[in-house]
Amino acid sequence: MQVKNPLINKAVLLVLVVAISALFLTMIRQFLMAIFMAGLFSAMVNPVYIRLKRRLNGRENLASILTICGIVVLILLPLSVLITVVAGQAVHVGQSVTPWVESFVKEPGALTHYLEKIPYYQEILPYRDMIFEKAGQAVGMISNLLINSLSSITKMTVNAVFKAVIMLYVMFYFLTMGDELLEKILYYLPLTHHDEERLLHRFTSVAGATMKSTLIIGMLQGGLCGLAFYLAGIQGAVFWGTVMAVMSIIPAFGTAIIWGPALVVLALTGNFSGVVILAVICGAIAGNLDNVLRPRLVGKDTEMPDLFVLFGTLGGIALFGILGIIIGPIISALFITIWEIYGDAFQEYLPAVGTINGKDRQKPDEGETKK
User: pTM score, two decimals?
Assistant: First the structure.
């Protein structure tokens, strides 16, 4: 029996589509991040896959398998070794911090000399030992928190390995069937072809640029700062270098969040050679790598205002964890792009902007709209 009112038919269909899609996404929600990362990595290694497929006379499955094996050998295995070394050094650092603080409290050394220059030091002097004791307790709590966090990370290892296997498995199908899946997704997206290409281009360009700049700059800054820590005689240089490699993604602050306090501690303990090493390598060299390399790696077409990069990165980390380093800037870029598309689509309904700070502003003409 045919439904007489087509609106009812479409309304029921839309309800079913939303309900079943929500149910399906809820069912696979624990794998969504693995699927997203599989799509991201597939887009990045797709040129390699295409080159291999040509050399293998169009054998897609074999080319996909070889591409995934290359990712495992070149990325996942070295990353696993690095994580093992970092975890070992992190435990050592956490266990050695408290005794170091206790010895520092008993023999403050250069710290007392600097404290004597503080105004009203004589009034603070009776409370000096209590302040040192509280500082030692605080550092001890931090070290215990670090060790407990490492224990939690160890428990998550099995889950991380399982999701990595899922990601590689999904990558196999994305490489061989990615174009067909993408065409299906774009077909069901009720936007013009131009807007779809605009969103897709922004997603792929920002994702690739973010991954490339984050990895290269992170490795360079983390490696240089880790070397500086080693030369300065700071224990756990690999651990601190890895931490600074992660911190390098935070605009404006970056690795200085770690090496800045370390430089102060070295100065207070009288290790001025270490201060010079950190100031030169971490501050002058590694600190300027971001300004020199990021514009070349990212490119003018994918650059975003620093404010969007900052909040996109920090918000992404808060919402998605460590993967938010990549996902956050992508969402920020899509946010900017979708509002640009909105401005183009409703340009005839949007009024011109008046004078702001003495400057006349008008609606952009359709031909001048940013593509």
Answer: 0.62
